[in-house]
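#onboarding

Welcome to the new folks! Below is a worked example of what a typical request in this channel looks like: someone posts a single protein sequence, and someone else replies with the predicted structure as tokens. Don't worry about understanding the tokens yet, we'll cover that in week two.

Example request:
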Amino acid sequence: MDNTTPEPSPRQREVLEQIEAFLARHGRPPTRGDLALALKLRNRQGIDQHLRALAGKGFIALEPGVARGIRLLRSPFTLTRRLALYGRVAAGVPTLALDNVEDELLLDPTLFRPRADFLLRVHGQSMINADIHDRDILAVHRAAQASNGQIVVARLGDEATVKYYRRHGHLLRLEPANPAFKPLEVDLRRQHCVIEGLVVGLVRSGMPQARKS
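Example response:
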């Protein structure tokens, strides 16, 4: 970004990120109401103030009288944010509890598709044939559902695991990428499994790498 261009405030950054996320999901700009809902604001007047400020800073253009008249001028891909890095899960503590945050890393979440929402450190070699090694840091997109063949972060009780997702009806199979490890088989009628997110990339030696979909 040009050094002469004012940086967006933290709240303006959130608005800009919501615009980019809405465009990615829906292929069209959001309305003021969409933004207010996403940011949990009752008053749309605050949204208008942020939009005018972003327009003044050259990040967006506004078309008067058009409900979806928000046009991105500067790519928000240059914006970075702090992503929580979750480490080893403590016994009795849910995977994404604050107690498990090992660090926060400055990283552009939109380097990955879909965007990364948090980071998770790998422990073990069960996914080594998927080029995921012990102590690697995974970029994870928060999602509650997955498709067969995707690599997921799944939680069984308080234990988190990274595996390939395979589901057929009520039978879920979480498959490793290492023949030395056995797959985890879950009967969803008897056991609860939570999908915490989809693995969308990894960070190794300071270089983010997106996974091929």
